[in-house]
Amino acid sequence: MENKLQNFENTLEKDHFTNQQTETFILNDKLGFPKVIKRKEETIELSDLINENREQYEDDLRKYGAILARGFNIDTVEKFKNVTQGFQNESLAYTLRSSPRYEITENVYVSTTYPEDESINMHSESSYAPSHPSKIIFCCIIPAHYRGETPIADNRLIVKNIREDILEKFKTTGVIYKRNLTGLLGMSWEEVFQTSDKKAVEEDCINNGMDFKWITDTHLELSWKKKAIWEHPVTGELVWFNHAMFFNKYSFSEDLLDFISSDDELPNNTYYGDGSEISKEEIENIKEAYQKAIVEFPWEKGDVLFLDNMLMSHGRNPYKGDRKIIVSIS
Known about the structure:
By secondary structure, the protein is α+β, with helices and mostly antiparallel strands. The protein is about 25% helix and about 30% strand.
C-alpha cells in the first residue's frame, strides 16, 4: 500500500490552479485540508478551469479529499448544473434514501431538509448502501444568517483516531445495518425506494443482498452487512467508510430512546458484523475520532465544495435564517 500511495503522490507536480487568474492555499494547515481555489479574475469560469485541468483536479481531490472553489459566483441552480455537467457521465441518483431530500433538476438536490435547530451527524454519503457515490459536490446558493456550516472530516484520520480494539473488530467483522421503514419514526419504504411497488422493492433487495421482511403493509424491516473499513481504490489508504455511528441507536436523542419500548422500534440501528452490539462507550469513541478530524468554515454565497466521498465525511450544524445548499452526487 505504501508503494501505491508513494507512486500516487509522485504524480502531484506543478499546481496548475495557481496562476494569474486564481490562487490556492490550504484552509486548515494543521489537518491539511481542504484545498481552496480562489478566483482573482472574473475571466475564468470554474467549469472551464476544471475541464482544462482535470488530471490536476482528480489528483488534488485524492490528496486533500476536499476542494473548495471560492469567488466563482456559482450562485444559481443553473450555474451549478453547468459545473456538474462535467461529471454527467458519472451522475448517480439518490436511491435507498436515509433522509428527506428533494430533486430540483436532474441529479441536483436540495441538501437534507432536517429541522434547522438540529445537527446532522457526520457521515459519508450513502456509505451504507449497496452502491455508493465516489464524489459529492455542494454549492452554497444562500448562506445561513447564523451558522449552518457543513463540517468535513478526513476518513483517513478517523481510522487513526479510533481506539485500536474497536477498529480491529470493524475490520474483522464489518457492520450490520438494520432499518425499520414505517413512515412514523423515520421514512416510509415508498420514500426510501422511490416506488410504491412492493415487488420492485423486493427485487431491489434481492439484487443487492439485503434481507427483508414485511411486518405489515406499511412496515418493512431490512438488514444487510457491509464492510466498515475500506481501501481507497486509487490511493490504497485505509478509510473509515460506513454509517455505523450515524445509524446507531446511541446517536438518537435520549427523548426518542425513552419513547420506544424496544430496539425493534428504532428506524435504524447498527451492529458489528458478527451481530454483537456496539456499546454506547464505543460510539462515543467514534464520535471523538470524528471531532479530531473535522474542519469547519462559514459558507459564502457561490462556494462550491468538491468531496471525495470515500476520503471525506460531512455533516451539518444548526442554523438560523434562510439557507440553501444544493448537492450533486456522482
